[in-house]
Structure formats: C-alpha cells, structure tokens
C-alpha cells in the first residue's frame, strides 16, 4: 500500500474513534511510556495534539515530563521547517492554520539539544518507518537532531504488516508506543 492510501486508511480509523476512546487510549499510551528507561534526560520534544484530527492527547505525557522535572519542548511551523520552544507556565499558545497549538514566542531550543522526540504519525511498519501527514516537517527536524536522540512514535494502532515505502530523507523510529504495547525497532 502506498503512503497516500495508508494516510487515508488511518485517518478513517481515527475518525471512527469516539472522544472517550481517544482519551482512554492516550492515557494508556502515557502509562506505557513510563515502562521505558527514558526519563533521566533533560529535553523532551512533544507535539501538541490537533484535537479535531483525533490525535493522541499528549497532555498526559506532558504531565509526566513535568513530573520528572524535565523540560518540555514544543514545535512551531515557520515556513518549511519546525522551530522549537521551551514550554513553560508562561508560554502563550495559539492555534496555527492547521489547528495545531503552537507557542507564540519563548526560549528557542536547538534540535541538537533534544534528547527524546515523541512523534506524531498516521501509520508505521515493523521496521519503524513512519508516515505522517506528508509535509516532511519531522524528517527535516530529525535530520538536525543528534543521532543518539531517541525517536518515539505514538499510535493508537499496531504496525502495518507490510513494509512502508521509504524515501531517502525518511528517518526511522527507535520505538512506537501503543495503548497495549511498546515496539522497539533497533538496538539502543
């Protein structure tokens, strides 16, 4: 199945979820994340959910990050790239043209500073290849992170059985967390 067909398939899967299912599965994903040995780092990059797209509610992960006295970093789209800002109590958020909550301004964080990246995705396979919405923002961002930065996808669904087509610029996940399991893709 090609990337376009997979996007449609998983967008439709999400549309069928009730808001209470989204919330329940989001909490389970956060609880699964607590099983990983990833909570001694300093900077955690986390996308803020597009609620109308029934994305995973990352508020639960945000609470874990703050509970561990770590720093949460959130993205903002600037042209063709993502910029990254420290999320604090005083950070003002505004919805972008895609209804993504984004920081208005704040303390900029460089990709090379980020230790763990929680990634949005629509689909992924058993090798850790992911499909997002197709704009390439996250692949560009990940190419500027340190190679040892952990890349963790979040999904309501299990991986696709067949391999996803891969482009030269695609960067694979280290893990993907679902409500019921944690998938590890390469040696860490």
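^ Assign residues to that structure.
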């Amino acid at each position: 199945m090609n990337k376009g067909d997979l996007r449609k398939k998983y967008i439709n899967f999400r549309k069928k979820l009730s808001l209470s299912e989204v919330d329940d599965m989001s909490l389970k994903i956060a609880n699964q994340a607590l099983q990983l040995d990833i909570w001694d780092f300093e900077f955690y990059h986390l996308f803020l959910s597009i609620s109308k797209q029934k994305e995973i509610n990352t508020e639960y992960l945000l609470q874990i990050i703050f509970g561990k006295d770590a720093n949460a970093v959130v993205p903002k789209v600037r042209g063709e790239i993502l910029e990254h800002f420290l999320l604090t109590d005083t950070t003002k958020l505004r919805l972008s043209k895609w209804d993504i909550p984004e920081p208005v301004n704040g303390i900029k964080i460089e990709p090379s500073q980020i230790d763990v990246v929680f990634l949005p995705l629509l689909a992924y396979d058993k090798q850790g290849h992911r499909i997002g919405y197709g704009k390439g923002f996250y692949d560009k961002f990940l190419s500027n992170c340190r190679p040892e930065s952990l890349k963790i996808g979040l999904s309501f669904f299990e991986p696709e059985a067949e391999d996803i087509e891969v482009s030269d610029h695609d960067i694979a996940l280290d893990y993907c967390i679902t409500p019921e399991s944690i998938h590890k893709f390469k040696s860490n």
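Residues 3-184 form a domain with the Rossmann fold fold (CATH 3.40.50.10420).
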